[in-house]
Amino acid sequence: MKSYWMLVLHSHLPFVKHPEYDYFLEEHWLYEAITECYAPMLLNFEKLKSEGKDFRLTISMTPPLCEMLSDDFLMDRYLKYLDRTLTLCKKEMKRTANDFEFNRLAEFYYERIKRIKNYVFEELNGNILHGYRKFLDLGNIEIITCGATHGFLPFISVNDRAVNAQIKVAVESHKKHFGQYPEGIWLPECAYYEGLDKILQKNGIRYFFVDTHGIIFSKPRPVYGVYAPVYTSEGVAAFGRDVASSRQVWSSKEGYPGDYNYRDFYRDVGYDLDFDYIKDYIVPDGTRVFTGLKYYKITGNTEHKLPYNPEAAFNKTIDHARHFLHERIKFAEEVSKYMDRPPLIVSPYDAELFGHWWFEGPDFIYNLFKEMSYSDDIVPITPMKYLNEFETNQVVRLNPSSWGDKGYFEVWLNGTNDWIYRHIVNIGNFMTDAAEKFKDSNDERVIRCLNQMARELLLAQSSDWAFLMTTGTAIEYATRRTKEHIHNFMRLYNMLAKMDLDYEFLSSLEFKNSIFSDMDLRKFYI
């Protein structure tokens, strides 16, 4: 019996845009993701197509990411980022002229960055979403949405309208960027709570993903475990994560990215080289950062790293792709003994793992699809293709869950971040009241103010801020962003209540926090 494999890549970054500064470090999250993950992945899709290899996968593109990727201001800054990196590459080629191994790596990075720049700004006209649309239209990928700003839905569920706004805005944003409404959604942090399926169904969503225990602990117990989707009482399908295929990539002990041939993430010339030499390519205040030029492979648990070899690393991705495929086929053969339909193995990952954290990740996926094209035992599939083939599925009551540490909600509610929810719930209630009050207003000033209030609320709800507080990464920035959006909302709310609008303040927010700039957001809260 053949089996199916479903690759799901969750592509997300929080909305970061700071035009008030000439240089802002956190904007580099976007530039690094494009350079190391999104563009290399699309280029490998192009290569698969040119070689006549078929492939199928599902990619979530969150609204904040789509808004940033189509923002002219940010993409202009990205172009400057690439040009600065190319200048550094040329400088490195001169510095390493007498060192064969490092010199060829400097040249490797120069050619790579130049190819990415040409692809994004020449072939895709400066908008990488064009690349995703191409493979969507060709039928190779299913693109799904997420919460409007990746809000942690269980913690705003005290107000159904706030949850509905996160979903409805996301659906409309997806239509704007991809020309069609999404049929699936990646729930922010895979966080499900009972009753959420009603809101999903109301907004035309036909399927979503949950972690393993979300299905395993459902009632009644699922007949096929996570190796077939289940339906909720609202008729929305839920697909569950396969633990083994996730561990194969994520595990620090068993995962492929730890292989000693792969590039070491932490050794970067931004930290290794003399300050006077590298100062023009790090933060203007002198703070050292990653430049993307990394010359060493993992080597092992040692400070004495060996030079990175791109050819050896690529060949290792072939080995790992073959191993991954072999393990999936072997596992599916075992599971199929207990099923009367082909087993489905769902492998969801953060997209940014492939390329950013695991530099060779896009090549692993390229080689995996290439190897899979030679096999009749396992076939790549996307959710709607599966549901169209297998329309009848078990109806269960799903277990509340997330894919965070320990499987539930603790990552987003603990002593580091619990202070935010009282404010988020309050301004959510204020927003629905104001939207109802002014729903028939034709006053342009009122509409602009309400729209910006909604943007500030949505941005405050982003689960990224609570996550960063928990992990201890960028705590100061995450705290400042949360407080800033709450403050902006309350200032706008009080201005509206008094009908005393500060247009300079409003205009500055409309430019800086410009997410969903072309929507009338009032209708999403009533």
The shape is: globular
Contiguous runs where pLDDT drops below 50 for at least 5 residues: none
- What is the CATH fold-level name of the largest domain? 7-stranded beta/alpha barrel
Summarize the main sheet: 5 strands, parallel
Taken as a percent bin, the fraction of beta residues is: 5-15%
SSE series = EHEHHHHEHEHEHEEHHHHEHEHHHHHH
By DSSP, the count of extended strands is 9
The averaged pLDDT comes out at: 96
* Name given to the CATH architecture of the largest domain: Alpha-Beta Barrel
Residues in helix, %: 40-55%
For the structure shown, list the relevant keywords.
globular, immunoglobulin/albumin-binding domain-like, 7-stranded beta/alpha barrel, 4-stranded mixed sheet, 5-stranded parallel sheet, alpha/beta, single chain, 526 residues
SSE inventory with pairings:
Blueprint: E1 3-11, H1 28-50, E2 57-61, H2 63-69, H3 72-95, H4 100-123, H5 129-137, E3 141-144, H6 160-178, E4 184-185, H7 196-202, E5 207-210, H8 212-216, E6 230-231, E7 237-240, H9 243-250, H10 269-272, H11 275-278, H12 310-335, E8 344-350, H13 361-372, E9 378-380, H14 383-389, H15 420-437, H16 444-460, H17 463-471, H18 475-498, H19 503-512
Parallel strand pairs: 1-2, 1-8, 1-9, 2-3, 4-5, 5-7
Antiparallel strand pairs: 6-7
